[in-house]
Amino acid sequence: MKIATILLFACIIHIDLIAQKNCDKQTDALTPLTDLENMQWRDFSGGLYYNGLNTRPSDHKNKAMGQAASIQPLDENGQPSASGKIVWIGVGASNPRTEFNRFIEQIDTLTNKNKALKLINTCIGGQGIQKMKDLTDNYWKQAEKQFADSGVTNKQVQIAWIETDNTQTADTTFPRAPQSLRDEFLTLLQTLHILYPNIKICYITARAYSGFIDISPGATVGKGLLHPRDYYNGWAIKWIIEKQMSGDNAYAYEGANAVIPFVTWGSYHWTDGSRKRGDGFSIDCQTDIGEDGLHLSAAGEMKIGALMYSYFTNDEAAKPWLFNNKANSVANTENKVENIKIAPQPAAENITIQTQNIGLPIHIADVLGNTFWLGNAEPQLTIKTQNWPSGLYFLHYESQYHKLFIRH
């Protein structure tokens, strides 16, 4: 009886010590890498790439396009096959898992998506790079089970999307912390190269801001997930790419000397708290972040999924294998499913939505996650769009995303 009482008390204490969200916390006024174009921070060049810009330098672009051109459907033995698959995996922990799931939902709305392309989310909550970089870690055994359940093999994996960090280290010294993480990324990439012999491209994404976490003493949140390590995560990715493009043999991806896959940027998720970046993207603490201050809310998941969708559908290195046709355009996607009709497309003055499922919520946002309309479904609903900026929007309805194109 005494033992049971002690165990119950321990459980209650554990529940009380979880992290919580604090939207009033002050930021450190750090600048996103994307807003550091042609600038320096602590004597290091900003921008996503080594040219100081956010666009791929010509040599990196040419190599990325070369890798993209080599991606083709493969059979279970890794041999070219017209009936084969192109497997794209997501690698990371809990936030990456939900982000990649929302991204998959949006990508699956493409009518011109490459029919050979299969996305598999191998992300597992609680996993950090300190575990995943180990070739024998259980993470990869779980991934193999997913492949078997999906009818594919490790030899069909050709693309990886990665978002991760070391969840256990408390080091926040710059540049030592991101340099150490860069080295851990290198080991992870070596592991991917061994596990997936036909992998061609690894897209690595920078983590979102984690400074909203308000930690109680003794909370169990991994120290490596805390601010400002979230900011340094992007610097580590930038330096991985720089190392590979400088010709460092430890980062070689070509020919017999290859030890890791080709590496390039995925979407960049970090913001300085809720402040808008130069490109207009922001994460709102109140609406986009869950109650623990770390994980995304449903709205935040949608916003990040939309950011990833926008990035990859416009990425020059993704278009050759992402789309079925050579036009590589998302503009011909039909916005029709059995339970909803949207017209006209593209729209100018207004859009009309028809559905039989009355009263269900409809949410329309742009690719940066900014809400433009929120309401409930009617048999026929007309929404004025003449004051909306031209561009791509997402309509979320019944757990599905539908693309809207506004042209003026």
Structure description:
The protein is α/β, with parallel strands linked by helices. Helices cover 29% and strands 20% of the residues. The chain is built from ten helices and 17 strands. It has helices at residues 2-16, 58-69, 94-107, 129-132, 138-150, 176-195, 229-245, 285-288, 298-314, 319-322, and strands at 20-21, 40-41, 44-45, 86-92, 117-121, 157-163, 201-206, 213-214, 262-268, 336-337, 340-343, 350-354, 361-366, 371-376, 380-384, 391-397, 400-406. The strands form five sheets. Strands 5-4-6-7-9 form a five-stranded parallel beta sheet, with helices on both faces. It has a four-stranded antiparallel beta sheet with strand order 10-11-12-15, with no helix packed on it. Strands 14-13-16-17 form a four-stranded antiparallel beta sheet, with no helix packed on it. A hairpin with a 2-residue loop joins β2 (40-41) and β3. α6 crosses α7 (229-245). The longest helix has 20 residues, at 176-195. The radius of gyration is 22 Å and the shape is globular. The model is unreliable at 1-17 and 326-337 (pLDDT under 50).
Low-confidence stretches: 1-17, 326-337
Given helix and strand content, the structural type is alpha/beta
The coarse silhouette is globular
Distance between the termini: 73 Å
Main β-sheet description: 5 strands, parallel
Compact description:
This protein is α/β, with parallel strands linked by helices and 408 residues long. It contains ten helices and 17 strands. The model is unreliable at 1-17 and 326-337 (pLDDT under 50).
